[in-house]
# Entry
Amino acid sequence: MMNWQEAAAWLESLGRFGSRPGLERIEKLLGKLGHPEQGLKVIHVAGTNGKGSVCAFVSSVLAAAGYRTGLYTSPHLVEYRERFQINGTLISLEELAALLTDVRRASLEAAGAGGEEATEFEVLTAAAFLYFATQKVDYLVLEVGLGGRLDATNVVRPEVAVITHISYDHTAVLGCRLAEIAREKAGIIKPGCPVVMAPQEEEAAEVIAAVAAERRAPLHRVQAECTVIPRRQSLSGQSFDLCISGRSYRDLSISLLGDHQVDNAATAALALTVLSSKGAAVSEDALRQGLAAARWPARFEVVLRSPVVVIDGAHNPDGAEALARAVQAYLPKRRLILVLGVLGDKDVPAVLRALGPLAQVAVVTRPASPRAAEPEHVASGLRAYVPEVYVEPEIERAVQRALSLAGPEDVVLVAGSLYMAGVARRYLLIESGTDEERKTGT
# Structure
């Protein structure tokens, strides 16, 4: 059996394959493993932004309802273990190494002589199915990696499919038009399986509705079936009233911040309502407790208070615009120092347009990814919006520089890439002495 160091080295070696859409490799691999995915009850979640938060809400509520609930998400912030959780507890390194030993053996058999080896994401997804099947979870909340139709997770027949808000990202793979991207995301819709659709642009909504009708999949629209009335918001959380198909829930609370997170919570609540119609017992108490307990790090997360330090993994135009709205709502008229690092294959000018005008000072750094955009190039574009721009390629030094420039009443905003957010978050928590137990992978 491989130890964790050997397993991690193997995963790193698979990274050279990058992302290769298609289901043939994962299906062959799962066949060699005895198709562990077939016995799982799955809530399958696709979308451009918000899918991780919706997954966090759904899994937290199901756990509060007493179900043994698996959660598989990507990418991780700091370590692979974060992708494999049961009721909020991460897999151990020993368990993960053992799983990957089995998956490696099956992958080599599936590839055969001269065959095509599975990618890193396919290997991790197969390991997830094997883990959650072996652990006999009651439900698996499964986040799509990229797209939907050809994503490695799309080998399941879910209890409920969920499509969160769709916008422009990964356009080289998914297409440049919103309708094309929506069609790829709608690929998770299976014949007869109910689908929950978060609020969408009309162009995306029409595509999803057409695919659902074609596959005779009952379509539940958050905009049609949910009414949300905001109540209170602060840096400690927010509350709202929610009505779903005539049933009212007053004063629900969540710790995740931003109007978009209320939409995500409503999407999760509607998905749970649909799941309840298929036999899941989710009480109002479980819904309340689960929504309030849900955590999703590095999404408008306040990690320090003086100065206020916010970390957000916003990495595409839609996410950056949502982040900008949240900053203006929660932290208006505050001097802001932006720590920014972006990937070169994103729409960098659009991200700069959204986040640049918020800042009086910016420190540009390099995300921990081979796809990272050159900091000097990003800084050049940022100077059109920010009067004072510095470059610090090392993430920790960039955060240090920002903190040194901030007064106690100022705001430091770390954003642009999850690959950077995880490193910055770990550094800040350790430096502040508030590093958490690894229970939640944060």
Notes: Confidence is low (pLDDT under 50) at residues 437-442. DSSP finds 16 helices and 17 strands in the chain. Residues 100 and 385 are 47 Å apart (CA to CA).
